[in-house]
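fyi for ur records
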Amino acid sequence: MSLLTADAPPAAAAGASAFATAAQQVVEYLSRRTPLSEWSVSRVAGGEQVHVHVHHDELLGTGDRVAWDDTFCRRMTDGAAHVVPDSLEDPDYADLPVAELVRSYVGFPITDEGALFGVLCGVGSRPLPNASSVDADLIELLTHLLSSQLTLSRVADREHRRAALAAALADTDELTGLVNRRGWEAIVADAQERIDAFGDLVALAVVDLDGLKAVNDAHGHAAGDALLRRTGEALRSACTEQDRVARYGGDEFAILTNNVAVEDLPRHFARFERALAEHGVAASLGHAFTGPGERTVADAFARADATMYDAKRSRRR
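which gave:
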């Protein structure tokens, strides 16, 4: 299938970029060769469907997020038809809130080592003449090829990430033992790559100590250093396998969290706030999520920083 290889990166360029290239080629190809002009490779995670690689017109956009239970794709994976000429005429789809807007639909699941990763789907604002107006066998084949590419890319990405993460985690802050600013930048770069290619769930938090200068002035820098070490211990104690914590600089710390649903983030980051309180550390925390097409990891960091300062101001009242 030349559409999966034309203009593709060389064989040495494996991993996330290979899957991203294949997915974009597929949606662009199908938009040209089928009656449906809008196609998407989406990610399903955390109770949401997020459109990652999109050829769009008016109905779909990169970064669009919808509740998974309210989607055509959820119905399809539960056994409803893969090709829907007119959603309002199909009892499995007619009751969906968007059925009047999305009148035609085609979808097949993309798997990641046997588990649901996402969906290759096409939508249209008008009904199709009939089910045979699209080549369902071809679209299913392309979905299988994307699933195979995803598996290969994940393996290559895993090896790349293992080496990159080991190098990043080796860059540590001498005082706290946490990842330092240089290591943090490597972790952020890796996260951005995974978001752009796979639509991975990523969130960030910024933690800022309250009153470090006052401690230094009143009790000396040794006391301030002890406070910073205690902060590192508190944050480390709250970490799960999904978290990476760094001393970003001075009295500011950063947390990058993987694969936590957006609705669960307040509860997830509350564990860090409790740990800080239990270690006798007064600090303010703000967090934000990021995703494909919404904001970069750097943008999310800036938003988390702003939210942290809002929390700091509210605590001073």
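Residues 107 and 274 are 44 Å apart (CA to CA). thats all i got for now
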